[in-house]
Amino acid sequence: MTSATTLSFATPFAPADSKLANYQRRHIPSFTWDAHACLPLDEKTPIDLLDTYVAGHIDYVCVNVGMDMNSVAHILRVIAAFRAKIAANPDKYMQIESFDDLAIAKSKGLLGVGFDLEGSVMLQDMPEMVPVFAKLGVKQIHFAYNRNNSVSGGCHDVDIPLTDLGVEMVKAVNTSGMIMDCSHTGRQSSLDIMRVSSKPVVFSHANPKELGGHERCIDDEQIKACADTGGVIGICGFQRFIKSKNAPEVPDMIRHIKYAVDLVGVDHVGIGLDTMPSVAGTNDFPDGVDKDFYWPAASGYGPGAGGAAVFDPRKLPALADALISIGYSPDDVNKIMGENFMRVAKASW
């Protein structure tokens, strides 16, 4: 989950576009990967929200199951509920436990689903907790959700280095079969993580600060450091970070993709939309949370901070075709749409 507004902490998907219904695809990527998505963190969440990703011809989506402000009990309830609902729909979805499962799911025409954690408070200062969550299906983690904690700095707080405990946590992630992520992480901590990690590091959902301008975006040094690890920057479709006047569309995504490709090359750019559908009667924060703390108005949230729409995943086929139309090769589009993140997964899982 990326952000909050005063009235709503989730943004529904855009209504179906009649143009999409008649859309004829020119290029079908070898594998389409959305590196970060959100469903309401509630046991009551209907799992058929994932059908939106199926409609976007996505092969794998990484779904958030908890953040720093969520209790361990809450996170475990969400994981248990999501796993059970995925298993109850074997004709549509498949829980991804290993790298080889990606090919199995695709061969069966199923949407592969993995989980991610946004923060490290749920690790309870114990590196030993990392492999426990890995066994529950968590395939990706970053260490701080906007604010500093005992492991890492957050992007909306005093810029601090990775702590000694954080160094041990990076090592645990590297050996436990997870992708090391730096989204929402403070600048210095992210650079430290990328220096310490023995595996590729990603920004699963983050945009170039040069274009987005928001504190949650990342600067050129962070982008280059990520690429130097062999990692990938997942271009985020969230309106405030993409800096679009209206709901983000294909040209907005291309603008950020092109900037990152021009800076570090096509091998280090992917997609991480950060979609946030809302469902009446569900609650991301059953234990209560100081929303103004995690999403401070001074950092660009709340009234007057701009829209909170997200690029519709059903438009990813149109994005792939648009990249072809402006001169990207089919091989390059395949990398951006999923193969780059697959490479990181193979090295990490």
UniProtKB/TrEMBL annotation:
EC numbers, comma separated: 3.4.13.19
Keyword Disulfide bond: no
Coiled-coil residue windows: none
Name the UniProt record assigns to this protein: Membrane dipeptidase
GO molecular function: dipeptidase activity
Lineage of the species this protein comes from: Bacteria, Pseudomonadati, Pseudomonadota, Alphaproteobacteria, Rhodospirillales
The entry's keywords: Dipeptidase, Hydrolase, Protease
